[in-house]
Amino acid sequence: MSPSPPLTSLECDHLCAWAESPAALSVALGETELPTAIRALIWRLADAADEAGPEGSAAIRQLFADLVEGWNDRLDAVGRQAYAAVFPAVVWRVAMGDTALKARLHAFGLDGEQAFYAAYAARRRRSQDAAPIIPDIVERIAVLSRVTIGADVLLTSLLCQRLHQAFPGAEIVVLGDAKLSGLLGGLPQLRVQPLAYTRRGTLGQRLASWLTLGDALDEIDPSLVCSPDSRLDQLAVLPLVEEAWSYLHWENIIDPAAPQSLARALDGWAVQSLALGEEAGSCVPQVALAGPYVAQAAAWRAAFAADGVPTIAIKLDHGGNPAKALPRRLEVDLLRTAAAAGWRILLDAGFGEEELASSQELLAAAGLSACEVDEGQPAAAAVLRFHGSIAGWAAALSACQAAVAYDSVGHHLAGALGIPLLSLFTGHRHPAFPVAWAPQGSAFIEQVVIPSGAGDQQIWQEAVLAALGKLLSRQ
């Protein structure tokens, strides 16, 4: 049995209802203190989430999966208000029991919970400023990763392009997963400085990533720090700089009455905040391969061009969320349809034992045998199962004529590489989510949004296969 969470379902519902109420708004704005009873609930949750073991894991799930992700997945002002009303108290509670976190907060002059709330509210107000003051001379810019590679492709790559446009002589340092070097390292003036975010362990261990981030910023000494709503600083809850004008933060909030792509929302904010004006032109997410992956991409293009057979890349991982996947029989039909249409199939084998087994079982169910290929070793068989890094996959993908992927890194890579794409989107909790997280790029993109849990219905299976037929007929 799973351990019981620290809050009962009734207590959790009560906390949610309060966080979304008008009373919570003044707390989120740093104007009034938390009600005593609400603080007690938050502290219980924070204390439990900072414990190791099964009980701590249950508390982490309740905090992030049930509360934080639920609020932030709404992508609206109410969800962000709830986060802003609750999460600073969570952080403060954990920090006051951690010597290093407490000392770093005190170094920023934050000696009480109310001051912590007020400082965060000030950063949020600045992020909403139509014309924020930024340094006149910018030699180096630190950009915080979104932590997940798909979000970095969709959002961080776009932000870096706009920053280069505003400050063409400045070095841009992306702080995030080392894997980003191969995907973004080809952008002008950009380098990736590896910085890991602890996504497992206790809450205190996760927050300790902020200490590592602060040390990295001291080393880099940037003129400007930009956060596209990064988990590295907990969506701006944790301070990074002394001078407000040297920090820019974008909140990924969109109007639920007029849903739009987060990439478009971020781009509009960047153009305005960086004063780029009408001459800014258009900008889309971009994958800019670097290092050995440039040569790998060329090798894949040469291999695929040899026989003139069009290649479709199929990547069916779901980022650890099975709700994003469609039924196996529909996945089988995708492969069989592409093969019957005369297309070469490049199937990503996946990472880890579970994904490797799944891709092997998929091929067996489809009655297809595959040539196993590693990155940097292109081949031109009818069916290829790819093994390698995410940048290696991007290199192979760049040589394809079409792609199919779920709502995960795969569809963002295809969009940003300009590969005609069929994006299959399901498993979302809010109606604006598929619009917000739709892949963006310069080529044809068709998104089929399937209601959560409805993938086994014939109407949606027919819609998916019809969309695949449309994609294949474009060649």
Written overview of the protein:
It is built from 18 helices and 12 strands. It has 475 residues and is an alpha/beta fold. It folds into 3 domains: 118 residues, no CATH class; 148 residues, Rossmann fold; 182 residues, Rossmann fold. It has a 7-stranded parallel beta sheet, sandwiched between helices. A 5-stranded parallel beta sheet has the order 3-2-1-4-5, sandwiched between helices. The protein is globular, with a radius of gyration of 23 Å. The N and C termini lie far apart (52 Å).
Give me some keywords for this one.
alpha/beta; seven-stranded parallel sheet; Rossmann fold; globular; 475 residues; five-stranded parallel sheet; 18 helices; 12 strands
Structural class by secondary-structure content: alpha/beta
Q: What best-fitting shape do the alpha-carbon axes yield? A: globular
- Per the CATH scheme, the topology name of the largest domain is Rossmann fold
**Major sheet: arrangement of strands:** 8-9-7-6-10-11-12
State the distance separating the first and last CA atoms.
Answer: 52 Å
**CATH H-tier superfamily of the largest domain:** Glycogen Phosphorylase B
Q: What's the CATH class of the largest domain, please? A: Alpha Beta
List the secondary-structure elements in sequence, H or E.
HHHHHHHEHEHEHEEHHEHEHEEHEHEHEH
Rg, nearest Å: 23 Å
Total number of distinct structural domains? 3
Rounded mean pLDDT score: 95
The appropriate CATH architecture of the largest domain is 3-Layer(aba) Sandwich
> What is the helix content?
40-55%
Strand elements, count = 12
